[in-house]
Write a structure and sequence with these properties.
Length: about 180
């Protein structure tokens, strides 16, 4: 959902909520009937304004409905080649990043997330490491290896690589 749709959703839900609160107050008797009918007569007396307002609400509701039910496109990095487009799914880059991170000594587990950035892609890696390593040195090595390998394989510039160490453990994963 883009910024326009979010703004539309905020305005739409605010107006509908206020209208429903007003209707509930009128039904519950908190607003005297003569005020309800007086307000409705004033609105109904201007049919062009009512039709324009209802048209805007219908269009806004239809737009929000479409945004809610339309199928989402998978995010990918797109290269324009001489013979056409080359799309690389962000999940494919995530797999590559995890393989590069796991190839480093001392990294037991790795999970990656790839986000589109303004000048390339941004990568976040969560790793589990063994206690016999120097974490800053391994993290710097993983960052450099990931940046170089992603550029080499995909041709995509890596904007930054953030590493989070989620655990330090000597246990090795069980192989069954």
């Amino acid at each position: 959902m883009g910024p326009f749709d979010r703004g539309l959703l905020v305005v739409y839900t605010f107006i509908v909520t206020v209208a429903l609160v007003w209707a509930a107050a009128a039904v519950a008797g908190f607003i005297p009937p003569y005020r309800v009918w007086g307000g409705l007569n004033m609105v109904i007396g201007q049919p062009q304004a009512v039709i324009a307002l209802l048209g805007l609400f219908i269009l806004g509701g239809a737009r929000l409905f479409w945004v809610g039910v339309r199928p989402r496109r998978r995010q990918a990095v797109v290269h324009e080649a001489a013979l056409g487009q080359v799309r690389i799914a962000l999940t494919a880059i995530q797999d590559l990043v995890e393989k590069v991170a796991l190839a480093q000594n001392g990294v037991r587990e790795a999970g990656a997330r790839v986000y589109p950035g303004k000048e390339g892609i941004r990568i976040g890696i969560r790793v589990a490491v063994t206690p016999d390593i120097n974490i800053p040195a391994i993290a710097a090595m993983v960052q450099e290896q990931v940046k170089n390998r992603v550029l080499e394989v995909t041709g995509v510039t890596v904007q930054d690589v953030a590493i989070t160490v989620k655990s330090i453990s000597a246990r090795k994963p069980r192989v069954e």
